[in-house]
């Protein structure tokens, strides 16, 4: 009678152990950020790779999401004669939810996978062991710059995505839905509140931390050669996406209450 429950128990214990290892790794990464030395060159390099090189994919995602959101809200609002609420709902949806979440998901695929692959390759080729032998802390040189860069750059990317997304909705509303451009922009500015922007940027910083730490964790603990690196990359993307969606709900519920 007990044997059928043994696999469930082992799975649950394995998940709890993995959560504990990840939490310890994240805490160590945070400690490495706030303790010297700080490798400024590595930090700037990671800001460029994580932030600047992600602008095209973030911009394209935002403009199409804003345009599609405006069309769908217009269709739904037309059923209740509420087409005038299109700019209000577009700016609210993008700044509070779609901007940070979609940017986080896109960067989970690009950045988290890249970090896991890079650090994982260094792990299986024993470069990290060599760094330790040379008295260089891998956490300070490899992980802390990536985590700090993601936390700093993702809010900037989300702010850019918010602007582009709103303008995507504006272009569709003005050119396809016969909205007056000045009225659309005035309604957008009047309806937007500071807390909406703060919520989105707070989510972005937390998502950046999750993306970088998950990628670094999977890469740092990878083993088994190329197969292990590929497995770590997949686990980093999946884990980052799941955590982003879960934490997104928690942060939203906290701000709503």
Structure described in brief:
With 257 residues, the chain is an all-alpha fold. The protein has helices at residues 6-33, 40-50, 55-78, 86-124, 127-133, 138-175, 181-191, 194-220, 225-256. α3 runs parallel beside α6 and α8 (194-220) packs antiparallel against α9 (225-256).
Keywords:
single chain; 257 residues; 9 helices
Helix content: over 70%
Largest sheet: none
Average pLDDT works out at: 86
Spatial shape: elongated
Element order: H for helix, E for strand: HHHHHHHHH
> Tally of extended strands?
0
**What is the C-alpha radius of gyration, as a whole number of Å?**
21 Å
The DSSP helix count reads 9
- The share of residues in extended strands comes to under 5%
Structural class: mainly alpha
State the low-pLDDT regions, or none: none
CA-to-CA gap between the ends?
Answer: 45 Å
Explain this structure.
The structure is a single chain. The chain is mostly helical. The chain has nine helices and no strands. Helix 4 (86-124) crosses helix 7 (181-191), helix 4 (86-124) runs antiparallel to helix 9 and helix 6 packs across helix 8.
Secondary structure elements and their pairing?
Layout: H1 6-33, H2 40-50, H3 55-78, H4 86-124, H5 127-133, H6 138-175, H7 181-191, H8 194-220, H9 225-256
Helix pairs in contact: 1-6, 2-6, 3-4, 3-6, 4-6, 4-7, 4-8, 4-9, 6-8, 8-9
């Amino acid at each position: 009678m007990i044997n059928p429950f043994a696999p469930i128990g082992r799975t649950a214990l394995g998940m709890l152990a993995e959560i504990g290892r990840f939490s310890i790794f994240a805490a160590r990464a945070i400690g490495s950020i706030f303790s010297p030395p700080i490798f400024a060159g590595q930090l700037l390099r990671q800001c460029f790779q994580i932030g600047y090189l992600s602008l095209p994919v973030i911009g394209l995602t935002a403009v199409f999401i804003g345009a599609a959101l405006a069309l769908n809200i217009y269709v739904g609002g037309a059923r209740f004669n509420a087409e005038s609420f299109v700019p209000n709902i577009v700016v609210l949806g993008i700044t509070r939810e779609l901007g940070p979440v979609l940017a986080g998901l896109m960067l989970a695929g690009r950045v988290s996978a890249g970090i896991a692959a890079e650090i994982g390759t260094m792990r299986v080729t024993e470069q990290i062991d060599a760094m330790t032998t040379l008295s260089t802390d891998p956490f300070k040189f490899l992980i802390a710059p990536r985590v700090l860069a993601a936390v700093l750059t993702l809010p900037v990317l989300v702010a850019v995505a918010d602007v582009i997304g709103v303008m995507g909705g504006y272009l569709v509303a003005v050119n396809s839905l016969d909205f007056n451009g000045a009225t659309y922009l005035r309604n957008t500015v009047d309806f937007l509140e500071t807390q909406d922007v703060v919520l989105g940027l707070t989510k972005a910083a937390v998502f950046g931390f999750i993306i970088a730490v998950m990628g670094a964790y999977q890469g740092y603990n990878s083993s088994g050669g190329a197969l292990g690196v590929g497995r770590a990359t997949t686990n980093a993307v999946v884990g980052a996406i799941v955590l982003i969606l879960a934490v997104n709900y928690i942060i939203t519920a906290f701000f709503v209450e």
